[in-house]
Amino acid sequence: MKTDMSYRHLVRLKAGFFLPFFGLLMACAHHPQVRASCDLGIYGNEREIAVVYDREMEPGERTTRYTFVDGRRGVIGDAEAALQCVDGQWQTTPRAALREIQTVETDTVFRSGELNLAGRLIEPVREADHARPLVVFVHGSESTPTVGNSYYPLLLAAQGVSVFVYDKRGTGQSEGSYTQNFELLASDVVAAAAEARRLATGRYERFGLFGGSQGGWVAPLAANRAGAEFLVIGFGLVLSPLEEDAEQVYDELRRAGYGEDVLADARAVTRATGEIVGSHFTSGFEALVEVKARFGGEVWFQSIEGEFTGDILRASETGLRRGVAGDFEDSGVLWRHDPIAVLRTITVPQLWVIAANDTAAPGLVTQERLASLQAEGFPITTALYPNTDHGMVEFEQLPDGSRRYTQFTEGYFRLIADTMLDIRSPPYGRADIRMPIED
Question: Which of 63, 182, 186, 426 stands the most exposed, by the fewest C-beta atoms within 10 Å?
Fold first, then answer.
């Protein structure tokens, strides 16, 4: 889960919702676009539902992709694609025709403080079998627009959920400057919630928020003020951003085979780098000099990356002391944000979906803290998916230690939609689901 505090001369790809899948998408980007007259949109039959959409991976270069509710995804035109256009109609492999699932989209501009933000309400047309929920989609750390550029809302709408999406301030058609200040972003969520309720008046019965990745910090901050009746978080963290960096470092070292002795030393390193970043480059320099002197010759020390620790260790002391006025950028991240204190104020049902092998947002401490809150009686459900990385993407481990990403894990999209619909239809793939502890 990338927070934008990186060395300007480094190219980092850890921003946005689905970092692990980025490599797969880029690898697929060269495939020819074999498409006749089939349109973008939502298509399905009695057995499966798919969303077909365009995605811009490079400026001016768009490819047509698909994602099924069951997690399969790919690029149209790929020889192994599970979806293809035949005689003007989308068909699956083995061949089965899909019909279009209609939605109604309403574009709007709404105010958040002094800013105008651009939003869109997406509503299913078909008669709902269950109480229609309305959900505000709370984005992650990406600096790209959400309206018309995310398939998540369409996957939810395909399952009967009304979804309101909007461009984060400073992106797309929204005014303002891009920021990762959680409190500012939460105020935008509150404004989006009011606009969503206004547009959907009389056409929904339950209202909630969905936050993915960095949205797992923002949505809880907005939940009470927005009047949310439920909260769904995908691959988020119950950690401060400083703790996130530290956990990434420890996770890297564990996967490299290092034991608790090295992890104990690494904790001294992350305390030093965390103090520098958390103080916005005003303190912690002496401690950093000390850990460099103690561990600089160790192999494990040279391999550290984390969210920002690797950048701090490689920077010059002069660059560090110049801080955000010099070689570093800080997009307003609240580095010492306390998510546990926020969650203790929320009494509505919550679902937290966790990727068991998340490299961008390691979830071990998050699981422990959520379990503790469950034990205290908070109405929190957790779902842990094995063999998944950030974004709930499954992977194959390659001999060199890298990962080849395949698909979204089966059951994930159904689970979050069913939670919004207030129904249960297990099993949800391989999820290890822990329900709230009853009094």
Answer: 426
Same domain, 95 and 119: no
Q: Using N-to-C axis directions, what is the helix angle for 260-278 and 285-295, rounded to 10°? A: 150
Last residue of a domain, one of 100, 117, 137: 100
| Non-local CB neighbours of 272 within 8 Å, separated by 6+ positions | 284, 287, 288, 290, 291
Helix (H, G, I), strand (E, B) or coil at 200: coil
Number of domains in the chain: 2
Q: Quick one: angle between helices 241-255 and 260-278, nearest 10?
A: 150
Range of the domain at 398: 103-240+337-434
pTM for the complete prediction? 0.89
For 85-110, the pLDDT digits (tens) are 998 999 997 789 999 999 999 999 99
CB within 8 A of 54, min separation 6: which ones? Answer: 40, 62, 63, 64, 65
Residue 3 has pLDDT above 70, yes or no: no
**Helices vs strands, H then E, count in the chain:** 13, 20
Element (H, E) at 374: helix 364-375
Rounded distance between C-alpha atoms, residue 240 and residue 369, angstroms? 12
91 plus 108 within the same structural domain: no
